[in-house]
Amino acid sequence: MGDGVVIDTVRSYSSGVVGRSLNSARTNHFVLDSSSGPNEALNSAEAFLAGISSCGVNLIEMHARDTGVPLRSLHVTIAGTRSPAHPGTFESVTMRFELHGVDQAQAEALVETYRHR
Q1: Residues 6+ apart with CB under 8 A from 42
Q2: Tens digit of each residue's pLDDT (9 = 90 or more) over 23-44
Q3: CB 32 within 8 Å of CB 42
Q4: Domain coordinates in residue numbering, the chain
Q5: How far from the centroid of its chain's Cα atoms is residue 12's Cα?
Q6: How far apart are CA 98 and CA 74, in angstroms?
Q7: Which residues are CB-neighbours of 110 under 8 A, at least 6 positions away?
Q8: Cα(99)–Cα(5) distance, rounded to whole angstroms?
Q9: How far apart are CA 113 and CA 58, in angstroms?
Q10: Which fold has domain 43-117?
Q11: The whole model's pTM is what?
Q12: For site-directed labelling of 87, which of 3, 4, 26, 42 has its Cα 20 to 30 A away?
């Protein structure tokens, strides 16, 4: 592998319950359910969307800190729309960013930073 390459690895295992997997990333362990059930744990689609929205939060907060922008807090809401006929495909994904402690121009610049990375 060349320099600058990062490999993130997650292992998923059968749990003994159809529609539920046991997952490990580094020393973290978590349960994911299928969107079709049993729906007691976070489901795979929600985990996927959480990865995207948490990236937005983390990237914007770090960029604000590094550039001296006075961001106090940030909330990102993400919603993915899927058809029951094609549950493995998102028809649309929308994200709403709420930034506190910055003016409109600063907020727009921070969100643009996320969009371009």
Answers
A1: 30, 31, 32, 33, 50
A2: 999 999 999 999 888 989 999 9
A3: yes
A4: 1-42, 43-117
A5: 18
A6: 6
A7: 60, 63, 64, 69, 71, 99, 102
A8: 32
A9: 12
A10: GMP Synthetase; Chain A, domain 3 (3.30.300)
A11: 0.87
A12: 26
